[in-house]
Amino acid sequence: MTIRSVIIGTGSALPARRVSNAELAEQVDTTDEWIVERTGIRFRHIAAPHETTATLATDAARAALAKAGVEAGSIDLIVLATATPDQTFPASATKVQAALEVGDCVAFDVAAVCSGFLYALQVADSMIRAGAHRRALVIGAETFSRILDWEDRTTCVLFGDGAGAVVLDAQEGDQVSGRGILATRLHADGRHNDLLYVDGGPSTTGTVGKLRMKGREVFRHAVVNLAAVMEESLAAAGLESAEVDWVVPHQANARILDATARKLGLDPGKVIVTVDQHANTSAASVPLALDAAVADGRIKQGDLIVLEAMGGGFTWGAAVVRF
Ligand code: COA
After folding, report:
1. Is 209 in the pocket of ligand 1 (CB under 6 A)?
2. Cα(238)–Cα(70) distance, rounded to whole angstroms?
3. Catalytic member of 21, 105, 156, 250
4. What is the mean pLDDT of the chain?
5. Which entry of 85, 247, 294, 308 is 20 to 30 Å from 319 by CA?
6. Distance (Å, rounded) from C-alpha 161 to C-alpha 151?
7. Looking at the predicted structure, is the pLDDT value of residue 206 above 80?
8. Domains in the chain, CATH or no CATH each
9. Angle formed by the axes of helices 92-100 and 53-68, nearest 10°
10. Atom of ligand 1 at shortest distance to CA of 312?
11. Which one of 32, 219, 278 would you pick to mutate in the ligand 1 pocket, going by the greatest count of ligand atoms within 8 A of its CB?
């Protein structure tokens, strides 16, 4: 028997303000038709001034703890994935720790943009399997509305704010029949920095900067990399795509979800889609989609799920989980 990290609770949080494409089209030179046809996005949530990455992360974590039926005090590790922290430092994870009154624990942020949740999940899973921690909060939380150029219609229509969280618990299990994270695979290729980046930072401009993206090139890389890393992670778990109950993808563009599913020969009905409701929430998108599908009863205990994401860097990754 080996130690496995089992997801015992999921939670999410969205800003109260929900913005439709039609509402955006009043400020930006775009249309509902263009956005729906090219991306599948219909709505996004936008944070109010009092809603920050850390407050959304805290709300999502609280919901995940409640779902798991465990106390905040039992958490000994918090890994928060974000590219939009409340402050350059300290880590937003420590704000979550304080807000939830977790007590002494290990708490830090992970920066891998849209693949951040997959990176955070592998880091926490590795620390649990090494025997260093027993129970972790893994969170993806973002307020991308704060780094969007609201004059640039090619990017500002694509993103939204939100947070999702899972509670990971150290449990004994066997390779395939037992619950838990069965395999994860991560990648990075820093040669593509200029295709998706923020044009500022503390060590360069001294400003926060705005998001810049060459969307068409990102699209092309996304389909190839995501299909490959899903196959790689399934092979690492000794499983085949036909055995997968649900794919929980990063929600960037409905056309990327369709093209990736087609490339793997997966039934599109097995792909969880929330991009229409949330747009691209970067590191929050996978745990938000996971919580939505758990809450509405589609994903059930024992299901085989594959999480996948790709983002700036480029970074990308996938995780095979017996839920
Ligand atoms: N409203 C109306 N028209 C728009 C628009 C908008 N919001 N944004 C761009 N356009 C226009 C462009 O100006 C262009 O016009 P032109 O042909 O006259 O120059 C036209 O639409 C087509 O633009 P293009 O960028 O080629 O469209 P596309 O089909 O590639 O779709 C994206 C653009 C961004 C939706 C798509 O490339 C994409 O989703 N890429 C991946 C993005 C992604 O996943 N990023 C995150 C990864 S973590």
Report:
1. no
2. 32
3. 250
4. 96
5. 85
6. 18
7. yes
8. 2-173 (3.40.47.10), 180-322 (3.40.47.10)
9. 50
10. 48
11. 219
Mutate to test the pocket of ligand 1, among 38, 212, 213 (most ligand atoms within 8 A of CB): 38
Cβ-based burial of 136 (10 A; exposed 0-12, middle 13-18, buried ≥19): buried
Question: What torsion do the CA atoms of 283, 312, 247, 146 make, to the nearest 10 degrees?
Answer: 30
Strand pairing report for 2-13 and 161-173: antiparallel
Half-sphere exposure of 22 (CA within 13 A, CB side): 0
Specify the 3-state DSSP secondary structure of 102.
coil
Residue 143 near residue 161 (C-beta atoms within 8 A): yes
pTM, to two decimals? 0.97
Task: Go through 26-51 and write b for each residue having 16 or more CB atoms within 10 A of its CB, e for each that does not.
Answer: eeeebeeeebeeebbbbbbbbbeeeb
Q: Which protein residue's CA is at the shortest distance from atom 27 of ligand 1?
A: 216
Residue with tokens 């939830």: 100
Q: How do residues 77-126 score in pLDDT, each as one tens digit?
A: 999 999 999 999 999 999 999 999 999 999 999 999 999 999 999 999 99
Ligand 1 atom with the smallest distance to the CA of 155 is: 34
- Cis before 89 (ω within 30): no
248's CB contacts (< 8 A; 6+ apart) are 272, 286, 289, 290, 293, 299, 305, 306, 307, 308
Q: Is 221 in the pocket of ligand 1 (CB under 6 A)?
A: no
Confidence tier at 264 by pLDDT (50, 70, 90): confident
Quote the ligand 1 centre to 136 CA distance (angstroms).
Answer: 38
Which is catalytic among the residues 21, 105, 114, 278?
Answer: 114
Distance 125 CA to ligand 1 centre (A): 36
CA neighbor of 270 nearest in space, from 224, 210, 238, 230:
230
Instruction: For ligand 1, say whether the CB of 279 is within 6 Å of any of its atoms.
Output: no
Strands 77-81 and 106-110: parallel
